[in-house]
Amino acid sequence: MIIKSIKLTNFRNHSSFLLKCEDETSLILGDNGFGKTSVLEAIYILTQGKSFRATDPDILKHGTEFYRIELEYQNGEKTTATYDGKTKTFHILDQKFKRLPKKNKYPIVLFLPSDLNLISHAPSRRRDYFDRIFSEFDENYSSSLSKYEKALKQRNELLKNEATLREDLFSWNLILSKYGTLISNLREEFTKDLNSKLTSTYRSISKNQDNVDLIYQTELKSKNESTYLKNLEQNFEKDLIVGHTTFGIHHDDYLFNFNQNLANNSASRGETRSIILALKFIEAELIFQKQNLRPIILLDDVFSELDTIHRESLTNNFKDNQVIITSVESIK
Ligand SMILES: Nc1ncnc2c1ncn2[C@@H]1O[C@H](COP(=O)(O)OP(=O)(O)O)[C@@H](O)[C@H]1O
Ligand SMILES: [Mg+2]
């Protein structure tokens, strides 16, 4: 699908803003603080159901009572979201929804400046990054993850209380084992999917013979629910002392190897950029393979971070996608 327009009312610093999009590439040009990222954020909410950077109270324009965002696709379909200070409601045709229905979502590949530091980020940032991608690959992934996270929160609450008994945790252990195993299996599978294309895509950008590998790291020795459960139970005393759950997929990480060494220690700035670019290309390709939809590409302020070769490679790779770019400076 192609976005025809996006309209913002009381969204961040925008009282009223309308962007009419081109079929191929649209450019939002403006100084820092103009509200460029906010426009991409609004598109993201109307295609994914929630923001990539904040919650609705942060987004509502200061001093106003509601925000509204309206997205129109080229085929005439419209998705609107309204937030009244308490709840957000999606309107599609004449129906109202608390959450954006799956059939009204549309895949996005988002490229933020901070993604360029993915390799050196803390593990939690990398987990969040891949969680977002894997949720685009498989709806089950995001629903399992939110069940896991809710259960983890409940279990951790109980662990803060010294009087908690082993058996009080049992039902949470079961949920964590079930979804933890499922998520870990999907992480393994999707990492393999990404990795299988990483070196060749990287080489197509960098025009050399370097090797890049993405490796999924987890403390789960074998991926079945009963082993997971046993691990949780074995750690009960330790968990009670530290006051949180020490075992599980919430500690997973992803490593990048560059010519068999950790990329974080060995890849140069330019090489790191090529790795991330390759990752974005593969992301778009896999979404197309898995869903038969060409994702919309949102590039937030990354053009200015890239040299000519990377810029050209980005433009060529996404020529079949609708691309929306924000930039402070004009991009030729
Ligand atoms: N809820 C809000 N109400 C009013 N202004 C806001 C709100 N949230 C953020 N802003 C302001 O909106 C401006 C635009 O933010 P952003 O979209 O990130 O700009 P850009 O990407 O163009 O630099 C910033 O100056 C920010 O301080
Ligand atoms: Mg910005």
Describe the structure.
- By secondary structure, the chain is α+β, with helices and mostly antiparallel strands.
- The chain folds into two domains: 3-106, Rossmann fold, CATH 3.40.50; 120-292, RecF/RecN/SMC, N-terminal domain (Glutathione S-transferase Yfyf (Class Pi), Chain A, domain 2, Up-down Bundle).
- 43% of the residues lie in helices and 21% in strands.
- The chain has a six-stranded antiparallel β-sheet with strand order 2-1-4-5-6-7, with helices on one face.
- A hairpin with a 2-residue loop joins strand 6 and strand 7.
- Helix 4 crosses helix 5 (170-206) and helix 5 crosses helix 6 (225-234).
- It starts with a strand and ends in a 5-residue tail after the last strand.
- The model has no long low-confidence stretch (mean pLDDT 95).
Count of alpha and pi helical runs: 10
The protein's oligomeric status is: single chain
Domain tally? 2
CATH architectural arrangement of the largest domain:
Up-down Bundle
**Order of strands in the sheet with the most strands?**
2-1-4-5-6-7
Class by SSE composition: alpha+beta
Order of helices and strands: EEEHHEEEEEHHHEHHEEHHEHE
Amino- and carboxy-terminal Cα gap: 27 Å
For CATH, the homologous superfamily of the largest domain is named as RecF/RecN/SMC, N-terminal domain
Low-confidence stretches: none
- How much of the polypeptide forms β-strand, as a percent range? 15-25%
Number of strands: 13
Bound molecules: adenosine-5'-diphosphate, magnesium ion
